[in-house]
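Sample pair:
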Amino acid sequence: MARPKGKGAYMISAIAEMYGIHPQTLRLYEREGLLLPSRSDGNTRLFTDEDIERLEVILQLTRELGVNLAGVEIILNMREKMAAMQRQFEQFVTAMNQELSQQRGQMQPEEATQMLMRVAIIDELIPAKRATKKDL
């Protein structure tokens, strides 16, 4: 699919033609809350590059994978939650790296290693050993 380049906003007719769908389908996606195009002063729907990327995901899910609109909504919401969690995780790792670099000069190498292991276990980068009946 040919995607427009740039930072513009595109009218519903251009998007519909570009992706081979009826403008009414885009309106349906908007009514269902799957797409949220902005509006011009004259109340014309304007689709941004982000809207177009979201539309491409919707079309891939519906056309190629046969997902219905309720399923598409769930998948899109999960993708947003996963992206938010990824951002939070990256912020946490950045903060931990900053903390470790500040404390690295003050610690003995063994203490730094132990601290890194605790961080890894907490973040489930290295799964913590769970107690089994044999361990008790």
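The longest strand covers residues 45-47.
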